[in-house]
């Protein structure tokens, strides 16, 4: 039995945490997961409901909520808090007879490394972010890349894009690296995907799902939506909320909708059951304006049988085959987005074929059982190496 401690500094229901949830709710022997979260929240609740052991070990809010890019005097006090926290974790991990540590966020990668050193346990970094500007300041990215060479015994990246951002040159690699795609997990108890669901004949629905944050580009969709105002049957649904101090961006979106009188746009806020929105939608769009590390919602859309339109950079390029399973468009160009949506509206037959091919691609490359298998087989390799 491999007792793995999964560390995350946040308990928000956000991309990396959703990916972790899917892995842990499917993980099988010989892995026994114990999740250590630095705060209580939706992830903790959902994991507990799924019968997974969760320990809430509170971390100072100033450290938890600290902007990853800020370099100031508080950095020193944050570093002390992280060391203290790492020490506490090391003690707990020994008590729990943990055999391996798996960190799921950049902050937990740092305090997890401290805990790993103090407890002499093997360390796996699971990286969900592109370690480069514009997501990270150049100096912060450099620091993380350097640490990535020395601290973890194994690295899991959510895409080749993410892995290559770490610049782990072949010769200096001391650890094992692997790409495990965040994958599609059928919601338990939901009807089979083959069941035909009612789609509104009155409307053509464009759906965008994701955290409300500038780099996810919801404002680009609003600009495109404005061009569709004369075509009243086309409507735009935006699901997701501002999570990490991004309220100002949400306010900006609301203001844009009011000022431009975008009566064709609905902002849903956080939606628990995204799959039911997907069943009513006609196309899924993904509008990130800087490279998306992966983009698991695109996979979800493809699995739900939707044609997808996504920005032509980063993770989406690994998911979508242009013109075969969806359309890849230049980021941050409302006009290109408008044209792509018009194309899907005007070509229902070809779009349908794309959706079918998209579903097949999900079956081939993005199923959760494969991802879990890869992860379970990865630990012994890392443990052996350390
Ligand atoms: C992060 C990334 C997103 C990815 C998710 C799961 O939220 O921003 O692209 O899909 O993690 O790995």
Which structural class best describes the helix and strand composition? Answer: alpha/beta
DSSP strand content:
15-25%
Largest sheet data? 7 strands, parallel
- Rg over CA atoms, rounded to whole Å, is 21 Å
Alpha carbon gap, first and last residue: 17 Å
- CATH homology superfamily name of the largest domain: Glycogen Phosphorylase B
Count the DSSP helices: 15
What is the CATH class name of the largest domain?
Alpha Beta
Bound ions, cofactors and other small molecules, one mention each: alpha-D-glucopyranose
Can you list the strand order of the major beta sheet? 3-2-1-4-5-6-7
Helix-strand sequence: EHEHEHHEHEHEHEEHEHEHEHEHEHHH
Q: Give the mean pLDDT.
A: 93
| Unreliable stretches | 189-196
User: Domains counted in the coordinates: how many?
Assistant: 2
Architecture of the largest domain, CATH level 2?
3-Layer(aba) Sandwich
Q: Provide the CATH topology of the largest domain.
A: Rossmann fold
């Amino acid at each position: 039995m491999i007792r793995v401690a999964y560390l995350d500094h946040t308990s928000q229901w956000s991309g990396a945490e959703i990916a972790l949830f899917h892995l842990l709710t499917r993980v099988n022997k010989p892995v026994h997961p114990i999740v250590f979260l630095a705060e209580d929240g939706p992830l903790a609740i959902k994991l507990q409901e799924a019968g997974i052991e969760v320990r809430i070990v509170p971390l100072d809010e100033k450290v938890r909520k600290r902007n990853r890019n800020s370099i100031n005097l508080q950095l020193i006090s944050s570093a002390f808090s992280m060391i203290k926290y790492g020490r506490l974790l090391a003690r707990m991990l020994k008590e729990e007879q943990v055999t391996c540590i798996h960190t799921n966020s950049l902050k937990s990668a740092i305090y997890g490394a401290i805990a790993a050193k103090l407890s002499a346990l093997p360390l796996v970094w699971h990286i969900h972010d592109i370690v480069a500007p514009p997501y990270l300041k150049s100096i912060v990215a450099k620091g993380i890349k350097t640490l990535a060479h020395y601290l973890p015994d194994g690295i899991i990246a959510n895409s080749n894009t993410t892995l290559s951002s770490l610049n782990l040159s072949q010769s200096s690699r001391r650890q094992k690296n692997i790409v495990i795609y965040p994958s599609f997990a059928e919601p338990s108890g939901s009807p089979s995907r083959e069941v035909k669901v009612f789609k509104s004949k009155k409307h053509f629905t464009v759906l965008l799902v994701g955290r409300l944050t500038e780099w996810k580009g919801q404002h680009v969709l609003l600009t495109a939506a404005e061009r569709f105002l004369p075509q009243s049957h086309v409507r735009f649904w935006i699901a997701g909320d501002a999570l990490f101090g991004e309220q100002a961006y949400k306010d900006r979106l609301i203001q844009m909708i009011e000022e431009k009188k975008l009566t064709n746009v609905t902002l849903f806020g956080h939606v628990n059951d995204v799959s039911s929105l997907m069943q009513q939608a006609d196309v899924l769009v993904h509008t990130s304006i800087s490279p998306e590390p992966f983009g698991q919602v695109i996979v979800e859309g493809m699995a739900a049988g939707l044609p997808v339109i996504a920005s032509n950079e980063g993770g989406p390029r690994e998911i979508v085959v242009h013109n075969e399973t969806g359309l890849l468009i230049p980021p941050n160009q409302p006009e290109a987005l408008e044209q792509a949506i018009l194309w899907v509206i005007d070509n229902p037959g070809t779009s349908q074929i794309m959706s079918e091919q998209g579903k097949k691609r999900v079956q081939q490359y993005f199923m959760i059982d494969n991802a879990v298998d890869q992860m379970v087989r990865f630990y012994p390799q890392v443990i052996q190496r350390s």
